[in-house]
Structures are given as structure tokens and as C-alpha cells.
Amino acid sequence: MPSETRTIYFDQADLQTAVAQYPERDRVAPPRGRLVEVIAEPGRIDIVALCYITEVGREEIYMSYAQFMDVLIRYCGSLNIPLPRRGQKHILANGDSIAMVVRLSQKSGDAFVEEMQKIEAIARREGMFAAG
Predict the structure, then answer these.
(1) Which domain holds residue 58?
(2) How many domains does the chain have?
(3) What is the pLDDT of residues 63-100, one digit of tens each?
(4) Which residues contact residue 11 at a Cβ distance below 8 angstroms, ignoring those fewer than 6 apart?
(5) Is residue 132 domain-resident?
(6) Residue from 43, 29, 34 nearest 15 by CA
(7) Nearest CA-CA partner of 89 in 76, 104, 111, 79
(8) What's the pLDDT band for 46 if we cut at 50, 70, 90?
């Protein structure tokens, strides 16, 4: 059965811009500082933590997994990066970088989760993320 996988990588600067561009009515304002880590574990907690280093130390803001996905989708739209509406989307986080994997496939549910776990393992093994 044919399928397509697209992976879009976001570095620290992309993520900081994406969060800053997200409409204020829909988000908690990020602190003034440098984004140093993104923690996204949808299978465990469905919360994304954005960790910043500021003048007063380390500060974190939290978004739901769905809200953070919306941040990335809107950012892609602002850069005219096409994303299929019906594609299943998954976030892989490592330190201050993120990969959004978009999969067009007939697979769903557990089969999709297994496929994303395989993709994540390959990405880490092949060094697609910086060591973190």
C-alpha cells in the first residue's frame, strides 16, 4: 500500500519564532530569553514544555500537544510550506530541535504509532538530531 512520509525539521530559532508568531489570544506569552529545550512526549503526558534561559534563570511555559502542533502548522503556513490536511502528524523532540513527521497512509491507530516509533529510532540512529 503506497504511503508518503515527510519530515520537517525546526531548529531553536524556528521554534522561538513560531511560538512568538502564534496569536496571543491562543497562547501563554513566552518569557524573554533563549529557548533551550523542548520536551514533547505525547504518549506520556500530552503536554509540551518549552524551556527558556532568562535573566532570572530557567523558565518554562506549557502547551497542549495539539496546541503546539497548531503552532508548527501555522508557522509552516507562514513560510508557505505545504502540509496535507489529512496527513497524520507527530512530533519528535530532542533538546532545542523538533521534527514534525507527516505521514500520508492508510494506517491508523496502533499501526501509525508503531510506524512513528520506527521513524524516530531511525532518525536518532542516523544522527538526524544533534546529540542531546
Answers:
(1) 4-125
(2) 1
(3) 888 888 899 999 999 999 998 888 888 888 777 788 88
(4) 96, 97
(5) no
(6) 34
(7) 104
(8) confident
